[in-house]
Specification:
Helix content is 19%, strand content 24%.
């Protein structure tokens, strides 16, 4: 579904049918440690770009709304995890380095460990 920022994101949901006014980010709702999501958070969110760059079914994302000093500078922070190899993924756009080594032709990009 398209976010208020105009990007496609599988975690965003909206329903304006027959007078309803529902908008939610199901990724942020799944994190009880996060602050409350607002529609304008979508404009700075990196999740749609991550999903477009990496469609691995083993990539698990966790998003949190973080703020700076005195509640200013709201931003979406994303952590990624590989459910296949049970490791943190430092660059979610690129994906899990161990998964990449298993695919033919990508071993050269990551080098042999």
């Amino acid at each position: 579904m398209k976010t208020p920022a105009g990007k496609a994101c599988r975690f965003y949901y909206q329903n304006f049918h027959r007078g309803r006014s529902e908008q939610e980010c199901r990724l942020i709702q799944g994190n009880p440690a996060s602050q409350t999501w607002r529609p304008k958070d979508c404009f700075q969110c990196p999740v749609p770009d991550i999903l477009q760059a990496n469609s691995s079914p083993d990539l698990v994302l966790e998003a949190t709304i973080a703020t700076g000093l005195l509640g200013f500078n709201r931003r979406v922070e994303v952590k990624a995890f590989c459910s296949r190899h049970l490791i943190d993924v430092p660059k979610p756009q690129v994906g899990c380095p161990k998964c990449a080594l298993e695919k033919p032709g990508l071993r050269e990009l990551f080098g042999d460990d």
